[in-house]
Amino acid sequence: MSLLTITSALYADGEVVVEKLAEKMNCRVFTDEDLITMTESASGIKYATLKKVAETQHLAFNEFTHEKEKCIASLRKTVSDVIAEGDAILHGVLGHLIPDWTTHVLRVLIISDAHWREENAVSRYGISRTDAHSRIKAADAAAALWINDLHHKKMWDPTLYDIVIPSDKSDADTSVQLIIENAGKLPAASSDIVSGERRDFSLAAAVGVALCGVGQALEIQSNDGHVTLTLNKNVMMLNRFKQKLSTLAMGVDGVRSVEIRLGKDFYKTNVLHSYDFDAPLQALLVDDEKEFVQTLSERLKMRAVETDVVFSGEEALDFTAREDTEVMVLDLKMPGINGIDVLKKVKETRPEIEVIILTAHGTDADRDTCMALGAFAYLRKPADIDQLASTMRAAYKKARARNA
Could you tell me if 164 and 215 lie in one domain? Predict the structure, then answer.
């Protein structure tokens, strides 16, 4: 059984080692990009959101939406699916999603100091020293946050790995030989240990997806269908919360029993509330009158409506292709792609977005056209700010009810 995770620092030549390993071991290779793409396809979560989480970027309103937890649970499920299919090399930080109780994995770190990597970036990849320095700094910072979130350990802590290879002291061929020798010591794929661990990881990952909406600080283990949930953050109404967790977990196919434990950090002062919050309204404003739309955004913010702002139809379509949004306020008369064309395209590609038309130039015929195309409402400038905010909340409520 060849199941390897290769964590490599940027410009430490990890990809060279992985390429040679894959050829010699006849193994499938999955990069972080591959796993994110697979997760998008399986979960429906947008690639851009998964990418942000994998790169430890901030997600607005995560306290309310638990989007980060949903992404991590879905990524972990993808990793478990890859493992279930047999021999594989996972190259990147997402291999750290494999739980430490999974023993049939060889965990490898390829690393060197930042100065050597800068020199390597310049000589091997033709990147300027300044650019290499900034890229290495950013990549190391993201890796440090990711590993700390998962393991509560420092970035390149050797206790997280079975082999640590200094790429400035070991060439690719020597590194490959060392990894192959150690991979040969892994249990056979047909062994009961491997089969059991794969089933346990798959079930734990499925339970994680089922529970990802409840919040954070939850560890999940599985042993032959018996699931243990460990709470590491204090929670209000504990008994009710435990019942909710148990009900959700027991609803996962293959779960035979659920035990809930309180972890060592449970009694710290931070409290995870076990009731559901309504997420603050987040919307997209589209208008080529920059001063008007920026002022509108500020006035809506005073009414607890957070907005993103773009200034053209092209930018609006690009935004909706990359980001999750549920409500759009759209002007009609704009240079380039006009509002009606934007509405038509959005309803073709993202029909779940509720679109409110806000225009000073529309006619009754325009109104009829927009409503026929699926607009939620048609308002004329200058709109009363409270009326607009109320209409946006109604659109948001409709979108949430449909997507629930």
Answer: no
Q: Residue 396's domain spans which residues?
A: 281-403
- Of 250, 272, 294, the last residue of a domain is 272
Q: How far is C-alpha 368 from the chain's CA centre? A: 40
Could you report the per-residue pLDDT of 167-186, keeping only the tens digit for each? 999 999 999 999 999 988 87
Give the DSSP per-residue string, 306-321: EEEEESSHHHHHHHHH
Query: Which of 280, 284, 282 shows the shortest CA–CA distance to 343?
Result: 284
pTM of model > 0.70 = no
pLDDT of residue 61: 66
- Which domain CATH number covers 198? 3.30.1340.30
Residue at 384: amino acid letter: D
Q: How far apart are CA 136 and CA 139, in angstroms?
A: 5
Closest CA to 382 of 355, 357, 356, 360: 360
CATH of the domain at 308: 3.40.50.2300
Q: Which helix (H) or strand (E) element contains residue 390? A: helix 385-403
Residues 152 and 169 in one domain: yes
Residues 172 and 216 in one domain: no
pLDDT tens-digit series, residues 340-369:
999 999 999 999 999 999 998 888 999 999
DSSP one-letter string for 81-116:
HHHHT--EEEESGGGGGS-TT--S-EEEEEE--HHH
What 3-state DSSP class applies to 155? coil
